[in-house]
Amino acid sequence: MTTLATGPDTLTRDALAVLQPGFDGTTAPDWVRRRLGEGLASVALFGRNVVTEEQVTALTAELRAERDDLLVAIDEESGDVTRLDVRTGSSFPGNHALGAVDDPGLTRAVSRELGRRLAACGVNFDWAPSADVNANPDNPVIGVRSFGASTDLVARHTAAWVEGLQSTGVAACTKHFPGHGDTNVDSHHAVPRIDVDADTLYARELPPFRAAIAAGTRAIMSAHILVPALDPDRPGTLSRRILTELLRDELGYRGLIVTDGMEMRAISGTYGLEHGVVLAIAAGADAICVGGGLCDEGTVLGLRDALVAAVRSGELPEERLADAAARVRDLAAWTAGVRAAASATVPEPEVGLVAARRALRVTRAGAAAPADTPVFVAQFEPARNIAVGDQTPWGVAAELERLLPGTASGSFTGEGGGPEALAAADGRRIVAVVRDEHRHGWMRSALDTLLAARPDTVVVEMGLPQAAPRGALHIATYGAARVCGVAAAEAVVAG
Fold it and tell me: Within 10 Å of residue 199's Cβ, how many Cβ atoms?
């Protein structure tokens, strides 16, 4: 039975304990150090906090000097969504590439090596994997972050990913419950809605989360999505029906429930940040993710005070806040108890490249000649979603410049992209790099222009390969991680 707070200090400590805030900078700010001494139990790292692994290791050591049992979280999915490799591109392919290979042993090995690297840097909590079934190929925010469109495939790889990561002592956080795959709106901007019946949801969206629970996932992240078949009034993050009655009572989940980023417009733009946080804890969430955008001390203090005020007014039961804080501390204790697991993990530094090579799908139109002279790489840039961010490089240009010295490249977007790329190529063979061609009419038109003028063009698709293969050589990588670009460049040269 939960012990109730006996005084304001305990209440304040519990309110701080449920927050997982971010901060600015590559060293530990003074305000974060102070709040750790007052009860803050978690911090989150984002791309802005990462320069090198050595720097991250020093940063986490600074933080743990204030609190040894600290949860240090990161949004490291590998593939397109990377924070540890934010400046170079990920050393591991993402979920869709792993799903394309469909070897759970390989998925387990990739996540184990990722976990080993995270643990070596002092990170012990990863907001991954995505267990979303990519039922809607036009989904603007999931896409290659999903293992695929098959529920069974997603379920087996979600379980393997959780097992591999947690074997290193890093807690997995399976997301986005109850499933973000069948949406056509990005919850960073508005509230997505899934209008399917309950039977479809139970059969399609929930099995990967059941598999994650069976695999022992230590945390599950809620989605800011409205699912009328489950709750017609509130999105998942704020729904007692979804977080408590479904996830806890029906699925039997006993671990930590974490919210997706609360400053996302689906919550903050509809309910307000502070009120949304209170509603989330009341609904059954245990930890509040905040800091992708708002990362200052004032935000943390405002949320702390909102939770304390809600308890004192009776809006939020004191025992619910105390229970949430206890779950955060329990997870921190688990990570401390298995911390030695990472040092016992045998490094497999090449496993990411091995996986990326295995994921490639190459389609040849006749006898496609290998590229053995410098080429022109035309990269067609779609707008990136917030989860991926715009800091991380992608493509094949850097690797082709290494393999074929003298190779040049350019980036193009919009209706004039095709003619501009053709002119910039100046007679050289073109390697056209696209991302989700099926979602962008201007990108299709650009390829039409290039292929009409230069049928020997090589097409590299680094998003969802939904469009029919075309070009003298078509290479699908199933993601835009750095290693996917390396594997694709090798295939271009091999022909």
Answer: 9
In DSSP notation, 282-347 reads HHT--BEEE-SS--SHHHHHHHHHHHHHHHHHTSS-HHHHHHHHHHHHHHHHHHHHTGGGGGGSPP
Torsion sign across C-alpha atoms 73, 74, 75, 76 = negative
pLDDT for 188: 61
Cα 418 from Cα 64, distance rounded (Å): 52
The predicted model scores a pTM of 0.94
**What per-residue string of b and e applies to 21-31 under the rule 16 or more CB within 10 Å gives b?**
bbbeeeebbee
Local confidence band at 341 (pLDDT 50, 70, 90 cut-offs): low
Taking the C-alpha atoms of residue 414 and residue 381, their distance in angstroms, rounded to an integer, is: 9
Q: Are 430 and 458 in contact (CB under 8 A)?
A: yes
Beta partners for residue 290, in sequence order: 21
**Which tens digits make up the pLDDT trace of 275-301?**
999 999 999 999 999 988 889 999 999
| Cα distances (Å, whole numbers) of residue 6 to 11, 12, 86, 278, 279 | 8, 11, 44, 20, 23
Rounded Cα distance, 407 and 423, in Å? 15
Sequential DSSP letters for 197-208: -HHHIIIIISHH
User: What's the CA angle centered on 49, arms 47 and 50, to 5 degrees?
Assistant: 70
State the catalytic residues. Answer: 188, 260
Query: Which one, of 67, 3, 11, 7, lies nearest residue 35 by Cα?
Result: 67
Handedness of CA 89, 91, 95, 101 (dihedral sign): positive
- CB burial class (10 A; 0-12, 13-18, 19+) of residue 339? middle
Locate tokens 């400053």: which residue?
263
